[in-house]
């Protein structure tokens, strides 16, 4: 922008002291009575000629950071694309945007087209009176006429501009911040962005939440020693038992009948064996004797097996511990086969934390990572632990779906109260800590994943 030289102000031959003070005070009184922007604009663009001698006054402000003509003297309808209006806007935007009251002549306008527009209208003398605060431009009034300006008129214009500026601030006319303020504001925004970026780059530990349960670490499976029907269950779920205590028993009738049959078969085989042995004294028949002897030995072995099975009708606890199974009524009358798992026996002090980490929440983990267990019964007091095992293959768990089984060892004391905190069967939520990541990734990893899946990337 080429700043033009100010036109020299001349002394008016008519003394300004002859202006009527009543005219000035009446104009100011009427000005402060206005309550709308339109009325204020109309008032400041049409002062009495006794105060200021002018041909045309344009109130040029700012709208969306661009020059805008709010009012023209004695004209309520403004066409922003009219030649003189457009020339005034362009002149203020490109050349006359200054902080001081300045008088100009059309000869000082650099743009020849703008100069011709004003000269064709007979407006060769211009005076720019800006409305500025320390850090804002509210625009200003462009006074136009064909005779030069004098110093006494400049004093009146400056005096009126103080009142105009006050009203513009009160009624919140559009403003344009000064360049120095824009720079400070830009630096402020850049500083905020830099602080935000640095804050988002802070390293934090990635963590995931997953359902968890206290389970026995090395449970002993109690399996069916023989094929039969369970007739009675002598223990309850989660009941402490001692070694040798009877857990459940089979229906003995079938086993007893089988034992009697094997006993009678043994007696028959024994009788035949003795008869064959006596016959060898009269006539030796090696083949017949060997067959009867084999049948006798087989009958003895079958009777022994039947007797041992009859002894297994009562299944006992192999060691001290807590017996774990589901429903008692579900076992009574249930037919089972050899090797079928019926219940578990566990040491109540030998427990660990089982975690079902959903595949959608999986994150790189390592053994030894910290784990916090929040029990459903007491969510405010977590129990710390360390991750001991991580499954490489997902599993399906009812109510959870596809998940990676994790195991963790909890840190507890040997007191009775602390042991009760990790009682087998307690459920809750486990917080598993992973590797160090940025705060941005920690906060937005799930939204970014959802957006990526939604976009199909």
What does this structure look like?
With 457 residues, the protein is α+β, with helices and mostly antiparallel strands. The protein is 37% helix and 29% strand. The protein contains eleven helices and 21 strands. The strands form four sheets. Strands 1, 2, 3, 4, 5 and 6 form a six-stranded antiparallel β-sheet that branches. Helix 7 runs antiparallel to helix 8 (286-311). The longest helix has 31 residues, at 252-282. The chain is rod-shaped. It starts with 20 loop residues before the first helix and ends with a helix. The model is unreliable at 1-6 and 12-18 (pLDDT under 50).
Output the radius of gyration: 52 Å
Indicate the structural class: alpha+beta
Multimerization status: single chain
Strand content: 25-35%
Number of strands: 21
Report the uncertain regions: 1-6, 12-18
Report the span from N to C terminus: 50 Å
Based on CA inertia axes, which overall geometry fits?
rod-shaped
| Number of helical segments with 4 or more residues | 11
**Average of the residue pLDDT scores:** 81
Helix residue percentage: 25-40%
| Main sheet attributes: strand count, strand direction, barrel closure | 6 strands, antiparallel
